[in-house]
Task: inverse folding
């Protein structure tokens, strides 16, 4: 097992680097690990007449690695320029593109990844504003385009003036690193998803029936279509709320 960490921060010893190193420290107990600081390489887009040696070197390491750990801070509500530049230059290599320009997962398919970011705001503000969402979504979009499977996200909040990662966060990161190397080659959580979907619908139906019973105490529902109409409307509102949570507010923010 080989775990490769990519650091997309301007500081080699900052909070982002410390978080990445903590994840790799946990993985190193049972796997080979390596850290690449993207600042140490000249990363440029491919040109027809120019050999891109540094990008070739990083690409070869990515091909050999079983798990990628990408760490980059959130700057101005988005992903740091160092990591974004790497994505931009690597975009034609992360997947194979068909005749109409659609990305088709190829050489990196079914590898696993962990993403790491941090921000100045506190956990409550991050929960409300979604400060780190854009950084995570950019990393997820790039990696899923290549067919990689996500393991975990890690967030460090309130980093203004922080020089040392807390012991609690250090321990969390090490646990993530340990678990990352235990992942199977393929994601086999289909049954788990079906069970979660069943439970979610069952709970939503129960809540909807409870709300409908309360409405019935205030507004008489005297026929089948009245009961059905209220049930559909309440169920739809609950479903929309849950989908919004899992698509917009799903990232770890503390």
Result:
């Amino acid at each position: 097992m080989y775990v490769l960490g990519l650091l997309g921060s301007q500081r080699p010893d900052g909070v982002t680097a410390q978080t990445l190193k903590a994840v790799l420290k946990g993985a190193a107990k049972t796997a080979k690990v390596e850290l690449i600081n993207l600042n140490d390489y000249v990363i440029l887009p491919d040109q027809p007449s120019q050999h891109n040696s540094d990008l070739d070197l990083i690409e070869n390491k990515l091909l050999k690695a079983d798990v990628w750990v990408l760490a980059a801070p959130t700057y101005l509500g988005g992903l740091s320029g160092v990591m974004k530049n790497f994505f931009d230059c690597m975009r034609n290599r992360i997947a194979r593109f068909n005749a109409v320009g659609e990305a088709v997962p190829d050489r990196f398919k079914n590898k696993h990844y962990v993403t790491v970011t941090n921000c100045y705001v506190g956990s409550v503000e991050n929960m409300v504003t979604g400060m780190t969402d854009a950084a995570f979504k950019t990393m997820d979009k790039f990696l899923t385009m290549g067919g990689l499977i996500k393991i975990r996200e890690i967030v460090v909040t309130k980093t203004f003036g922080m020089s040392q990662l807390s012991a609690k966060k250090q321990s969390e990161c090490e646990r993530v690193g340990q678990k990352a190397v235990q992942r199977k080659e393929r994601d086999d959580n289909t049954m788990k998803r079906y069970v979660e979907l069943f439970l979610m619908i069952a709970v939503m139906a129960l809540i909807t029936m409870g709300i409908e019973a309360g409405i019935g105490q205030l507004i008489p529902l005297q026929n089948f279509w009245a009961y059905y109409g209220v049930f559909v409307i309440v169920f739809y509102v609950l479903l929309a709320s849950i989908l919004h949570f899992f698509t917009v507010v799903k990232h770890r923010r503390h």
